[in-house]
Amino acid sequence: MSKSTTSETTKTITIDQLNPGMYVKSFSDNKNLNIKSEGYISCNESITQLRNANITHLVIVPEKQKQTVNVEKVFAEIKTKAPISTKTKSSKKVELSLDSEMKKASNLYKNAKLLQEKILSQIKQKQSIQVSEVEETTNAMVDSIFRNQDALTCMSRFQTKDSYLIEHSLNVSILMSVFAKHLGFDKRLIQELALGAFLHDIGKVLLPNDILNKRNPLTDKEQNIIRSHVALGLKILESSPSISHMAINMIREHHERLDGSGYPKKLKGDEISKYGRMIAIIDSYDAMTSERPYKKSIHPINAFKTLIAEAPECYDEELVENFIQCMGVYPVGTLVKLNSGKLGLISRLNKQKPLHPYVRVFYNIRMNQAIPIKEINLSESKYKDQIDCCIRPEEFNLNLLGFFKTAFID
Q1: Domain stop point among 67, 85, 111
Q2: Which domain holds residue 105?
Q3: Which of 168, 63, 71 is nearest to 112 (CA)?
Q4: Global model pTM greater than 0.85
């Protein structure tokens, strides 16, 4: 039964009809005691708590309902498996803290962007590129990932839509290295994968900007021009014999799909190497979670759902599962809003409790002001705060990079 007020329409529902994302005005228990309590239902855990408190009916505001992603459901779809491993394991070393590594990672990321800009400029001017220079940079990135992978992973989350081509290849290289390390690959192998990922999209610099950044749907002819970037990238590197066959294969296969729907060769199944399958997942994930002139980014959890939905037809299902386990429900560097109104950045994963990571809070939207930076472990019972939703900096007019530097680097 619904009733109207001057400002909003409410509706009475039963506890069985309650879903995450609904906005509750009040609720009543089995003794018909009416309790005023306004706010969003953020997760299934909140519903369970209400049910345990014998709440039977609730008054909601349908127009305020938020689109939410059921993260428990997403992780329920991920089977718990040991990581796929190769014969050789990564050497184990004591990791540095995030704070200790962050300044080095920040400088590495900045220098890698400058190198990517230099390479793209050389290609435009039809000059040859020095693969050894790229290798030196990607090897340094892999070293950083072995010291503390969260530092560069965090950097990869701070993207600008005007630098997509540069940052995308850099971020794919970082994520490829982190994923390969998660799978237990040998460090030397990870270095080769990082190099191939760094160069996987270089052919795009030779494409017309008006097609690359077109806001409207591409014509068939324009689609074919976009797809030519794979062949263009391979041609650029054919004069670089030092680059490994594995790296070349990654560049060749990063748009191939298991069902043959990809390009340029429409390869199927086992025709695509494991490394080609890995970069296909990572390339798609970073593209979905990046802001571009013609497309808004989506949150990581939504990108994970897309990857799950398109496996095993397009993506290797086992690798998708392992990639999501590697990244965590809320990847490091993700901006989140807590139930208390505090904003923070995911600073560490919690492998035992993926839904309760570490968050470094820095702002309170209810007070509309910055607060002392503090890292909290959401799995500890003393912290009743939990993640309400992932957000974008522009939603709160925040200089996120400024807060990030204060929280992690300065």
Answers
A1: 67
A2: 76-327
A3: 168
A4: no
